[in-house]
Structure formats: C-alpha cells, structure tokens
Design a protein that fits this description.
CATH architecture: 3-Layer(aba) Sandwich
Order of helices and strands: HEHEHEEHEHEEH
Number of domains: 1
CATH superfamily: Vaccinia Virus protein VP39
Structural class: alpha/beta
Number of strands: 7
Distance between the termini: 25 Å
Number of helices: 6
Largest sheet: 7 strands, mixed
CATH class: Alpha Beta
Radius of gyration: 16 Å
Helix content: 25-40%
Strand order of the largest sheet: 3-2-1-4-5-7-6
Strand content: 25-35%
C-alpha cells in the first residue's frame, strides 16, 4: 500500500471537514474537481465556487452532473459578489499565490464568513519546488497578511505540512471551542 502524498492528505482533510457545513465556498477553484468530490460526499450543503477563469470548473461540474448543486461565479478573490456573513466554510487550495492582492483577498474571505465560520487556506510554502516560477509565501509573510487583513491571530493555527502552508481560521478562538474543532487537531500534533 502506498502512502498518500501531502497534497492528497490535505485535500482529503478539506473534504472530510466540508461534510459538516451548510454553505461552502471554494475560492480559486481551478478545475472544480475538489468541489465536485465534496458534492458527491455531501448532499445537504449549498456549494459555490469562485475563480477568474471559471470555464474549466463549469465544464467539469456540468459533465459530473452537479450543475444544479454547484453554483459558479467568475470573480476575483479580492471582490467576491456575495453578501457579508453568507458562508460557514470557505477554503482555498493552491491559489493564494495567484491572488492579485492576498491581503484584500483575505479581508474579503473574512467578510463572507459567518461569525463562527471557518476558513482553510492551503498553498505552496516559500521554497517549495512546483515546476513553476511563481511567488510563494513564508509563514512570517502569511502572518503579516492576516494581521493586515484584520484577522485575529489568536483565531488562527498555522503549520507547514510537506510543501504546503496550512492556515486554519475559526470565528471563535480555538481554546474557547476546542471540542467543536477536534477534526483539525490531528494536523497540529507535534
């Protein structure tokens, strides 16, 4: 039996966590495959995806038969056209480095979260070899982005896992709501 790659472990982590939420948004959805898999596993959630190049996601979602369940919106991460406090779970995987303004994108994601909403951001860490010449961020840069976006660091957990930085944000501080977030703690065991 072969081991799962870090990338597949983190995708599976998002899928398992997404099973517990009602309104879910994928920011920078790319081809939409992760959201399609979430739709297969979760029949009760309302699902949306946002990307500036939404065509691949639209085509894949239609081919998979989920065009009635997954709503696609062509938009920048910095300007997502939804009302405030609309989603209880927002995730973005392998996209933060592509946002034009990461601070503005994080502010926008926070605006869209319900007061007790949860956000997972997973992106290549600084120095990761991906075969592409793109800018990836270190943990210090990410902390600075979060602070500039007005996100309280006491509500954030951050860890490097393999080639990735993982940010977990909760509307409520971790210690005041520990039991609710047990699914996250295995990622942060030392």
């Amino acid at each position: 039996m072969s081991e799962m790659s870090d990338e597949h472990i983190l995708e599976d982590f998002i899928l398992k966590h997404g099973e517990n939420h009602k309104k879910i948004l994928d920011v920078g959805c790319g081809d939409g495959e992760l959201l399609i898999e979430l739709a297969r596993r979760n029949s009760f959630s309302e699902l949306w995806c946002v990307d500036i190049y939404i065509e691949d996601a639209l085509n894949n979602i239609m081919r998979a038969g989920f065009s009635q369940r997954i709503k696609c919106v062509a938009a920048k991460a910095e300007d997502i056209p939804f009302e405030s406090r609309f989603f209880d779970f927002i995730y973005s995987i392998r996209s933060l480095h592509e946002f034009y303004n990461p601070v503005k994108a994080l502010k926008e994601i926070r605006r869209l979260l319900t007061p007790n909403g949860e956000m997972i951001i997973i992106d290549w860490k600084k120095g990761a070899y991906t075969g592409a010449f793109e800018r990836y961020y270190g943990k210090g840069e990410l902390r600075k982005f979060l602070e500039q976006a007005g996100i309280r660091l006491r509500n954030v957990k951050m860890k490097e896992i393999g080639r990735f930085n993982v940010l977990l944000y909760f509307g409520m501080p971790f210690l005041s709501n520990r039991q609710r977030h047990n699914t996250f703690f295995y990622l942060f065991q030392t």
